Amino acid sequence: MKKAIVYVNQFFGQVGGEEQAGIKPQLHEGQIGPAMQFQKELDADVTHTIICGDNYMGSNTEEAVEEILGMLDGKEFDIFLAGPAFQAGRYTVACGTICKAVKEKFGVPVVTSMNSETPGVDMFKKNMYIMKGGNIASKMKQDVKAMARVANKLLNGQPVKSADEEGYFARGIRHQTWLEDGKPASERMVEMLLKKLNGEPFETELPIPKRDLVPIAPAVKELNEARIALVTTGGIVPVENPDRIQSASATRWGRYDISETDALEGGVYKTIHAGFDPAAADADPNVITPIDALKVLEKEGVYGSLHPYFYSTVGTGTTEAEAQRMAKEMVPYLEKDHVDAVIMVST
Amino acid sequence: MKLEIGNFYVKDIVFGEQLSLKDGVLTINKEEALAFIREDDRITEAELYIAKPGDKIRMCPVKEAVEPRIRPDGRSIFPGYTGDLAKAGEGVTYALKNCSVLVAGRHWGGFQDGVIDMSGEGQKYTYFGQLNNIVLVADTNEEFERNEQQKKNDALRRAGHKLAEFIGACVKDLTPEDTEVYELGGMIRRDADTEKLPSVVYVMQPQSQMEEMGYNDLVYGWDMNHVVPTVMHPNEVLDGAMVSGSFMPVSSKWATYDFQNCPNIKALYREHGKTINFLGVIMSNLNVALEQKERSALFVAQIANSLGADGAVVAEEGYGNPDADFVGCIVALEDAGVKTVGITNECTGRDGQSQPLVTLDEKCDAIVSCGNVSQLIELPPMETVLGELQALARDGLSGGWEDDEILGPSVREDGSIIMENNSMFCGDQVCGWSPKTMKEF
Q1: Hey, which residues does A131 pair with through a beta bridge?
Q2: CA of residue B305 relative to chain centroid, distance
């Protein structure tokens, strides 16, 4: 019999509600909460249940992940399941975080479930099977069944069908597949054409992602009075990377004081961006974040003044949703300091 | 214009004394046929084989597929190519159905050549895996391109077209089992009921990207690189006006067989007078330079508007660079108020995570998708190989490779292969056969 391990939060692990959300991870033999139903549905034995407080996972992510990976070390298991997390925001992020870490460290398949309206979906859908889950805990039975259906295919080495057929969030992967009814392209074309001509709804086979275009800002009118800030997705940070910004698929950002700096020095700053050859940027970080030139131009009076911090994250693999969130977190700092314009430097 | 295609159904093919079709059995006198092929003194080596569905046969490098046909009135089946220029699309043509002439290189392949399996897992990847095929395996003295990745394959391809006509001749004086009639009159003054229906054009983008002559698709023997989009009658396409070329990764290609049987045209014909008013074909092309792409898109949109088309279907014979022509043409049509459906394949990479077309536009809101050129395919050894399997690895076929640090060589010592769909002969079937689609995983 194959073996499975299930992760749940403090609530579904029957430790307690919000007041217990700070608890550290616990490893229990056997099945607790949803793990009991997984035991019934899975072609595997659920040997252990891990329980962790959502707040602990959210605020002490690195420690929590490390502790859980430590607990799993030496355990035999063929699949790792987390949730279902329904519409609980922190729980969805926790499920995604731990599934990603377990998959990377142990190389086992992972499956979780969340509601579409949660942050965990966009953060982790490219990394794993996330079943489209219900919004409330009363959907427990059906969400567990859905997770178990895909998990069983993975356990038994059967092919997992498309996102629509199985009910998981598309992972940004498109593959060719034979239609069950074998309907040739010419007939699909005619059906789509007639619907389009007659103004009826139709479904394209190649959805084009909607472009979320931001209009270009009007030119700064009086540059010699403008306060300017510098933001980069090029991953320039102090060498110790104090904010632990990830080298790809970033969810963190930092801002660094440059009020007393005339130029960024190599060896003091570097790039942690994993998407390009870092040699030039490490030798001279100003090639990505041109503090040197901006300081000169400031002295020459070309523009008014420079905001005393530059802002940095990593653009490679970072989702649009995460990028938007990080920008929204940066904006108040800029507004508070009456910044008129931002120079956005990519790589 | 009225075209009658008289069909003769081939159930079996054998070699024998006299070229004939009797009770569904096509008999070919092999020596006579080979002597005919050798009349082209560029052919240095030639052999004929029969490959039927279920046979344990793998073919590589396959260069062309042609449906055997004959015109009882003596006109050539490929006017301007295998014979004198004459009108195509009108009158009577006889066709041998469920049957094709395939041409494979005896040794040498190129970027544009491909693989066909007649049985096993690989059979479903091409349309020709389900047909009764007469396979010409030959070599030529075309030394200038022997080691070129891009080959014109002129002698071999012409041999295939001529052989298709040579074999088709056996039904010249017979009565077809059934007849398909394709008739469309002038675009204006159609009957009142038809004119009430939405009018539709079919926009074809055949391959024409090579600036040097000899590689591109031909229209009445004329290189498609040298045309601006024009109006054609759909019957002309079904009746040999179009001949396939020798450029583009082969899963994206349309064989001459695909033009002769173009399912998209036939599907629009079926709807004509019922749900649509099928106006005809706008024959466009695919170009390399942006200005050429834009010019063709302008022409297509103008013609569609001038004809009063309400709707259009655009199909491209290619991927990558041609996606710009494809998307540009759809956008031009939509901007001109023509409701448009596109048919294409995609290139999402081996992991499925790449952008499907090189350029995208939200106006392309109705796309039929036929496959992923870069899908990895692994197939076991096959008992018989026609041609030279090593060509897949050695000669720069678009879906093969000499060696790979992870995957190893495309062609293994035991005869098993690993390749990209790119080299499945006309595998993506954008002309309309494709039973494949693309889904999100």
Answers
A1: A113, A168
A2: 28
- The two tokens of residue A269 are 């700053």
The partner residues of A23 in beta bridges, in order of sequence, read none
The CA–CA distances, whole Å, from B182 to A16, B4, B233, B284, B296 equal 75, 6, 11, 22, 28
CB B136 within 8 A of CB B293: no
What is chain B's pLDDT, residue by residue, as a tens digit (441 residues)?
A: 999 999 999 999 999 999 999 999 999 999 999 999 999 999 999 999 999 999 999 999 999 999 999 999 999 999 999 999 999 999 999 999 999 999 999 999 999 999 999 999 999 999 999 999 999 999 999 999 999 999 999 999 999 999 999 999 999 999 999 999 999 999 998 999 999 999 999 999 999 999 999 999 999 999 999 999 999 999 999 999 999 999 999 999 999 999 999 999 999 999 999 999 999 999 999 999 999 999 999 999 999 999 999 999 999 999 999 999 999 999 999 999 999 999 999 999 998 988 899 899 999 999 999 999 999 999 999 999 999 999 999 999 999 999 999 999 999 999 999 999 999 999 999 999 999 999 999
Beta-strand runs (E) in B188-227: 199-205, 218-219, 222-223
What local confidence, expressed as pLDDT, does residue A250 receive? 84
Alpha carbon distance, N-terminus to C-terminus of chain A: 50
Phi and psi, residue A293, nearest 5°: -65, -40
C-alpha span between A76 and A73 (Å, rounded): 9
**Measured distance CA(A8)–CA(A5) in Å, rounded:** 10
Rounded CA-CA distance B137/B50 in Å is 11
Contacts of B345 (CB under 8 A, 6+ apart): B251, B252, B319, B369, B370, B371, B372, B373, B428, B430
The answer to whether ipTM exceeds 0.90 is: yes
**Using a CB-CB distance cutoff of 8 angstroms, which residues of chain A are in contact with residue B334?**
none
CB-based contact B441 A202, cutoff 8 Å: no
Q: Which residue has the tokens 């409701």?
A: B339
**What's residue A2's pLDDT?**
97
Q: CB–CB of B179/B4 below 8 Å?
A: yes
**What does DSSP assign to residue B145?**
G
Global pTM reads 0.85
Work out the minimum CA distance from A209 to partner chain B, whole angstroms. 7
Q: Among all residues of chain A, which has the CA nearest to that of B125?
A: A178
| Paired residues of A6 in beta bridges | A49, A81
A255/chain B closest Cα distance in angstroms: 32
Contacts of B268 in chain A (CB under 8 A): 190
Q: Is the CB of residue B136 less than 8 Å away from at least one CB of chain A?
A: no
A-chain residues near B276 (CB < 8 A): 193-194, 197
- Facing residue for A206 by CB, picked from B351, B352, B438: B438
Q: Tell me the residue length of chain B.
A: 441
* Residue of chain B with shortest Cα separation from A167: B441
Instruction: Give the strand order in the sheet containing B218-219.
Output: B222-223, B218-219, B242-243
CA dist., res. B177 & res. B9, Å (int): 7
pLDDT classification of A318: cutoffs 50, 70, 90:
confident
Q: Which of residues 257-316 of B touch A (CB under 8 A)?
A: 263-264, 266-268, 270-271, 275-276, 310-311, 313
**One-letter amino acid identity for A279?**
A
Residue A276 pLDDT greater than 90, yes or no: no
Residues contacting A24, CB < 8 A, separation 6+: A52, A53, A56, A64, A67
Chain A contacts to B (CB-CB under 8 A): 160, 162-165, 170-179, 182-190, 192-194, 196-198, 202, 204-206, 208-211
Tokens standing for B277? 């008013």
CA–CA min distance B124, chain A (Å): 9
CB pairs under 8 A between A and B: 148
Cα A95 to Cα A130: distance, rounded to the nearest angstrom: 10
Q: What is the pLDDT of residues A6-23, one digit of tens each?
A: 999 999 999 999 999 999
